[in-house]
Amino acid sequence: MATDVHGPVSPKTADSASTAAVRVAGLTRSFGGRAVIDGLELTVRPGEFVALLGRSGCGKSTLLRVLAGLDREIEGEVSVPRRSAVAFQAPRLMPWKKVWRNVLLGLPGRPEREVAERALGEVGLSHRTDAWPKTLSGGEAQRASLARALVREPDLLLLDEPFGALDALTRIKAQRLVAELWRRRGCAVLLVTHDVEEALLLADRVLVMDEGVIAYETAIDLPRPRDIASPRFAALRARLLDRLGVEGPADDSLADGPAGGGLADAA
Amino acid sequence: MLWQVLSASGVLHPDVLASPGTIARTAAGLVSDGTLPSAMLVSVQRVLVGLVLGGVAGVALALASGLSRLGEDLVDATVQMLRSIPWVGVIPLFIIWLGIGEAPKIALIALGVAFHLYLNVYAGIRGVDAQLVEAGTSLGLGRWGLIRHVVLPGALPGAMTGLRYSLATAWLALVFGESVNADDGIGFLMNQAREFFRTDVIVVCLIVYALLGLLADFLVRTLERLLLQWRPTFTGQ
Question: Between 20 and 30 A from A159 (CA), which of B22, B63, B206, B230?
């Protein structure tokens, strides 16, 4: 998949592949004179799972759109793998194409139906191959969207709050699925989220974006699979919430479960 | 029933409105002597030719203005301007330009069809969800791929609405066109009947117009069911 040169964004050459999957230097993106991203620096190693946290409107989704090649009015340097794929918050399946055709959409050549079936099998959707998107549940649609991203065999998977619209139980399942797919595929993942626990459950490294730059970052060296109830997890969560500007007492109300970490309302 | 009783008792004079029984007999007569079928064939042919010509023109213009900004500037402004002209009003002009043969009738039908299709297809294209277009881009679709897999299917519901409107317009245009000057077709039958105060024939012709309109609507509905089965809309309870 060609996420190719956009503006100053250059596709990574093979020899630099070993050093970084994503390299961003001095990235600035302004809307009407206001810099939403302001001289941002970011490097993601191949195979690394990075979560990007931040309040609503901090520019994290803008950054993801830039990396996806959907926003090219930028200054600075951005290099991403040629093969990258996006899963959006809304599944964005074409309603007029059956699930398997959605999965194959945009693939070069004339891919066989089996290719889609394999990808759908990987996300546990083999039984919905021939379904219309309108008949899928929210979780199923999101998994179809994941299959559509994975079938491109990306070196970089960009996830834009993909679990935001799912109910708590479906979200836990979807998070586990993403963790497993990442482990199996070994691609770099950039997960944009406002859910601190989700970030802590999945990522090798958590970044906090504020005022257009990466304001804080921390490596998460908890053993996998991670336990929300462990004291170290709780300590990390408290630290990140603090960084995000959420006061201490609010922490209790957010500690109920994985679905409770939403910051959009709190912040 | 009331109608039949009024007619039989002479309250309703046949010159005003023929009785249902007479109408039924007239219809049978017109069918058996071949007048009505041949007239229908001529009329339906006119509608089809007008529909195809107007459809091609309307869809082509809508694609031109829907898919490109330049096309929008060139086409849409012009069409929106012409839209304020009542299309029936151009009949005299068409007669002067095209004579009194088939051409002005078909042109009138094509004009009505083209307008409705243009407006709905254009609105359909411009109403396609930008998020889906973005998703298509992120999946690596080029310009043509986006048009084929995202924009055109997304505009299909609008196009089908346009088709329904334009069919209704086509029948209307047919009635107008055939009532102005015609030497065959359903309109000709009606004109002739008017000369001889044959209200029975006029009613038969009206019924035929109505039935043809219903048939056309049924065909479009069937087409919609086939083409738009993916649509997540409320279908009634």
Answer: B230
Q: Which of B134, B138, B153 sits opposite A94 (nearest CB)?
A: B153
User: Is residue B31 over pLDDT 70?
Assistant: yes
**B167 touches B224 (CB < 8 A):** no
Helices (H) and strands (E) in chain B, counts: 12, 0
Q: Are A99 and A131 in contact (CB under 8 A)?
A: yes
Please state the φ and ψ torsions of residue A27, each to the nearest 5 degrees. -75, 125
Report the phi/psi class of residue A145: left, alpha or beta, with left for phi > 0 and alpha for psi in -120 to 50. alpha
Q: Which CATH class is domain B33-227?
A: mainly alpha
Q: What residue spans define the domains of chain A? A: 49-74+81-261
What pLDDT score does A207 carry?
A: 94
Interface contact B149-A69, CB threshold 8 A: no
Q: Are A36 and A62 in contact (CB under 8 A)?
A: yes
Positive or negative, the CA dihedral A97, A103, A104, A107 is: positive
DSSP assignment of A144-177: HHHHHHHTT--SEEEEESTTTTS-HHHHHHHHHH
The pLDDT value given to residue B133: 94
Please say if the pLDDT value at position A267 is more than 90: no
For residue B149, give how far its alpha carbon lies from the nearest alpha carbon of chain A (Å): 8
Q: Where are the domains of chain B?
A: 33-227
- A108-128 pLDDT, tens per residue? 888 899 999 999 998 999 999
- Would you call B139 and A152 a contact, using CB atoms and an 8 Å cutoff? yes
Which of B139, B226, B233 would best serve as a mutation to test chain A binding (most A beta carbons within 10 A)? B139
The predicted model gives B222-227 an average pLDDT of 90
ipTM above 0.85, yes or no: no
CA-based nearest residue in chain A for residue B152: A96
Asked if B231 lies within 8 A of A95 by C-beta distance, the reply is: yes
Rounded-to-integer distance, Cα A50 and Cα A178, Å: 13
pLDDT in tens, B68-77: 889 899 899 8
User: Chain centroid to CA B89: how far?
Assistant: 17
Q: Which residue of A has its CA nearest to B228?
A: A96
Residues of B in contact with A97 (CB under 8 A): 149, 153, 230
Fold classified for A49-74+81-261: Rossmann fold (3.40.50)
- Residue A75 C-alpha, separation from nearest chain B C-alpha, in angstroms: 20
B141·A86 Cβ contact <8 A: no
Q: Which of B129, B131, B138 to mutate to test the interface with A (most CBs of A within 10 A)?
A: B138
pLDDT value, residue B235: 67
Helix or strand or coil: residue A91?
Answer: coil
Measured between CA atoms, how close is A31 to chain B, in angstroms? 19
Q: Does A69 touch chain B (CB under 8 A)?
A: yes
